[in-house]
Write a structure and sequence with these properties.
454 residues; 6-stranded mixed sheet; 4-stranded mixed sheet; 17 helices; 49% helix; globular
């Protein structure tokens, strides 16, 4: 076709045609970009296994709890290192929401809980906030917190997927509650375990009535009354931890979880235990910590068998007078000093707590849910302690002022009457009785956790 070389309208047509094509191309690219963005967002919502990371916080939950994706394993990271990862109600609720969501997610095969900061797994509940509110005449702050964490404890114990805890640092109080009720508890040499509630005029709760009773001999009773710390590999030898991994192998362990899968025909717990064997030390024979725990158990079983705190103290004094070694004499001195510094009210209530929980666990063969009944008992005790001056004194003295010798309201064991101790265990009215923990499922039997089905 003939076209005039100097025709200006033909040039305008070419320019308009080119610019139109560019606009259409730009529009197509924009639409494609929008489709790609929607696809990425949809994948993130679906939590596809290979997505690298997800973070909870802000308006959707506590900023101190974040989640991570480790292949088919989901991680809960307690990220409050300035407070040694102590949990408050918002953190407890965020953990509960995550666990509930993952339990129904077919891409999730196990859960791991760990602490951020390198010094603590979880140092317990934020009881300073609880005590401050109670001091102002508002015990509901504490009651709401404890109801929340007791409910979380029950959720963990009944969780339908393997629940692991990495105990690399301090594990105290509530930290025991969110770890000890799971079937896999991995300690490192940095682990420091204690239930020191008697030092602040309180009692070991979060299901400690149950899990401390499951430790060998009278070790749980001893730990609850004295608040003594156990460290490193002692946790494994005492049954507090199920596995021990040196801290320098933790990065390899976390990397391994990216490739972990459950095996058809093998119970989930067994699959995890087999996988964890690759990280244990190759030590053979009895370790020094194992000998330490055996020696400790021998002393504990001899002296903490009595039915009153007064008898325990007197027997310890007699043992000190006749100690056969310098090492034993030091243990007697340390144990007596801890008991003398702890709240006399707490000591008497805690001993009764263990006597009652022993009965609960023994009666579980009749079809009762031992853990729920222990939590019900702790719920009663907690609400009574919220109104005790010694709890406020203990928190202020030990946690705020950093003193080791609080001036207790009840300054000696003989000032704590049996009637006062009895009052901590009387039933509560209405819905205060169970602290919001679900009733046991039909068919639960035996003294083991429901998690044993794993």
């Amino acid at each position: 076709m003939y076209r005039s070389k100097g025709n200006p309208s033909a040039g305008r047509c070419r320019e308009e045609s080119t610019s139109g094509a560019l606009r259409r191309l730009e529009g197509g690219m924009r639409a494609a970009g929008e489709r790609l963005l929607r696809l990425v967002l949809d994948l993130a919502k679906a939590k596809v296994p290979w997505m690298a990371k997800e973070v909870h916080g802000g308006s959707g939950g506590s900023p101190y709890v974040r989640s991570e994706v480790l292949g088919h394993v989901r991680g809960i990271v307690l990220d409050r290192p300035g407070s040694r990862n102590a949990v408050d109600l918002a953190m407890v609720n965020t953990m509960a929401d995550m666990l509930r969501e993952w339990e129904s997610n077919v891409h999730v095969e196990a859960v791991l809980v760990r602490g951020e900061g390198g010094k603590a797994f979880c140092a317990g509940g934020d009881v300073k906030k609880v005590a401050e509110a109670a001091r102002k005449g508002d015990p509901s702050v504490g009651e709401d917190f404890f109801r929340g964490i007791y409910s979380l404890v029950y959720q963990i114990a009944n969780y339908g997927k393997p629940y692991m805890s990495l105990l690399d640092g301090v594990v105290m109080g509530g930290g025991g509650g969110i770890s000890m009720h799971g079937p896999v508890r991995i300690a490192t040499e940095n682990a420091v375990f204690a239930m020191p509630e008697a030092t602040i005029g309180f009692f070991p709760d979060v299901g400690a009535s149950f899990f401390l009773q499951e430790l060998p001999g009278l070790l749980g009773r001893y730990l609850a009354l004295t608040g003594t710390k156990m460290t490193g590999k002692q946790l494994l030898d005492a049954g507090i931890a199920t596995h021990f991994i040196p801290s320098n192998k933790v990065p390899s362990f976390l990397e391994f979880l990216h490739s972990f899968r459950l095996k058809p025909g093998l119970p989930p717990k067994d699959a995890l235990f087999q996988s964890l064997d690759r990280f244990k030390n190759e030590d053979t024979g009895a370790s020094s910590t194992e000998m330490e725990v055996k020696r400790l158990l021998k002393l504990v079983n001899r002296h903490f068998v009595h039915s009153t705190v007064e008898s325990i103290v007197q027997d310890l004094r007699n043992g000190y007078e006749t100690a056969s070694s310098r090492e034993d004499a030091q243990w007697y001195r340390d144990t007596l000093e801890r008991l003398e510094n702890n709240s006399p009210l707490s000591l008497k209530v805690i001993l009764r707590q263990f006597q009652e929980s022993h009965k609960i666990i023994q009666s579980a063969q009749q079809g009762k849910s031992a853990l729920v009944d222990c939590l019900r008992m702790e719920c009663r005790m907690m609400q009574r302690f919220m109104h005790q001056e010694d709890f406020l004194i203990g928190v202020q003295s030990v946690l705020v002022e950093k003193s080791t010798k609080p001036l207790w309201t009840y300054q000696s064991l003989d000032q704590v009457s049996d009637e006062l101790v009895d009052s901590f265990f009387k039933p509560m009215p209405g819905d205060q009785e169970l602290c919001g923990v679900a009733h046991p499922m039909e068919g639960e039997r035996g003294r083991v956790y429901p998690m044993s089905k794993l």
